[in-house]
């Protein structure tokens, strides 16, 4: 069957077949919490009538669903301010996003990213070839998995995704962070340091 490789063994001519192309996403899975975040972000995009799930949808769902993400901001007032901005999307700043594609190109992007359905933990959920995802959101998910893999963890979580969002200075999630007074680079540093230092912005 095309695309399925049997264990490597010599063929009738004594030649060992070469392995097929390697997958482009890192090994690993999404935590149950992160899968819930993605499902919530998709529902929010559908309810809002948005063409694509983007990084602002991901940030909104992270803040609503993941206690570890809320904790990294240091106090409830900052989280409330962020959520207050995010809910204004459909009546304010978000109107200019309608009909546009979020693809900042601000972070290194592998243009041959796997389809959403090919991410462990996302497959078999009806996603087709990245349909319904902005390029920036798909890149953030890919970077979250890479971050977990580089940290020696098999499972990516909400903090991995938040750190990935914060590293794209041109994405919509970072625009929201800045509007609320959060420095995205300080946020990423705080996540990397285990949230041990006070978050001063």
Residue stretches low in confidence (pLDDT < 50, at least 5 long) are 1-11, 15-28, 106-117, 123-130, 196-201
**Shape assignment:** globular
| Helix count, DSSP H or I runs of 4 or more residues | 8
Which structural class do you get from the secondary structure elements?
Answer: mainly alpha
Helix content: 40-55%
Radius of gyration: 19 Å
Distance between the termini: 55 Å
Total number of strands: 2
Strand residues, percent: under 5%
> Describe the biggest sheet?
2 strands, parallel
Structure description:
With 201 residues, the chain is mainly α. It has a domain of 137 residues: Orthogonal Bundle (Double Clp-N motif). The chain contains 8 helices and 2 strands, in the order βαααααβααα. Strands 1-2 form a two-stranded parallel sheet. α2 crosses α4. The termini are far apart. The relative contact order is 0.17. InterPro entries: Clp_N_dom_sf (IPR036628). This is Clp amino terminal domain-containing protein, pathogenicity island component. It comes from Streptomyces indicus.
């Amino acid at each position: 069957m095309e695309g399925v490789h049997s264990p490597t063994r010599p063929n009738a001519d004594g030649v060992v077949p070469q392995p097929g192309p390697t997958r482009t996403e890192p090994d690993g899975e999404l935590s149950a919490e992160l899968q819930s975040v993605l499902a919530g972000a998709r529902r929010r995009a559908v309810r809002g009538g948005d063409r694509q799930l983007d990084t602002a949808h991901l940030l909104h769902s992270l803040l609503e669903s993941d206690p570890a993400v809320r904790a990294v901001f240091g106090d409830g007032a900052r989280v409330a301010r962020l959520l207050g901005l995010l809910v204004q999307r459909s009546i304010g700043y978000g109107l200019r996003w309608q009909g546009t594609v979020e693809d900042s190109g601000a972070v290194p992007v592998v243009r041959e990213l796997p389809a959403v359905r090919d991410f462990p933990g996302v497959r078999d959920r009806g996603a087709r070839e990245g349909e319904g995802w902005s390029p920036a959101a798909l890149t953030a998910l890919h970077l979250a998995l890479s971050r977990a893999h580089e940290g020696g963890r098999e499972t990516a979580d909400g903090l991995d995704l938040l750190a990935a969002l914060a590293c794209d200075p041109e994405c919509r999630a970072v625009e929201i962070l800045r509007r609320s007074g959060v420095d995205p680079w300080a946020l990423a540093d705080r996540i990397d340091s285990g949230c041990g230092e006070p978050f001063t912005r």
